[in-house]
Amino acid sequence: MKSVLIDTDVLLDFYLDRKPFSEDSLQLLLKCEQKQFRAFVTPVIVANTYYILRRHATHHYVVERLQILLNTISVLAMDQKQVLAALESKFTDFEDALQYFSAVNSNKIDAIITRNIKDFKKSALPVFTPQEYLATFL
Question: Cα-flanking dihedrals φ and ψ of residue 4, to 5°?
């Protein structure tokens, strides 16, 4: 079974119903729930999602939504090794570097799914938009 890292922007597209991207994000999450592939996030992705959703809803509501999400999606470990690798990397976006090195060091991730492909130019892992991943693998 394929395993992917789902980036913050994909989750926000779903939660905030950002058209035209929300439909692909919904389909991706439904396929994950149906166990057609395994999905992961990092603690940073969860924190960023919480922070942005909290601007639109109460703490209680956001926490409930994230708890539901984490019944389907797992969280990768992130520690000093990933942070140092991100700091020392050639990635221009530190946050994306954190996601990337958590994915690579986990030895669980086959691909990264994001709408922000340009920030993952240095990735040794394949990087797809939700639309591309759905069309290619599911």
Answer: -130, 155
d(CA 108, CA 50): 24
Edge to edge, what strands does the sheet with 38-41 contain? 74-75, 38-41, 3-6, 111-113, 127-128
Q: Which domains does the chain have, with CATH numbers?
A: 3-76+107-115+126-137 (3.40.50.1010)
The pLDDT of residue 67 is 97
What's the one-letter identity of residue 112? I
Collect contacts of 53-61 with beta carbons under 8 A, ≥24 apart. 53/12, 53/15, 53/16, 56/16
Q: What confidence score (pLDDT) does residue 1 get? A: 64
CB 40 within 8 A of CB 76: yes
pTM over 0.70: yes
State how far the Cα of 94 lies from the Cα of 96, in Å rounded to an integer: 5
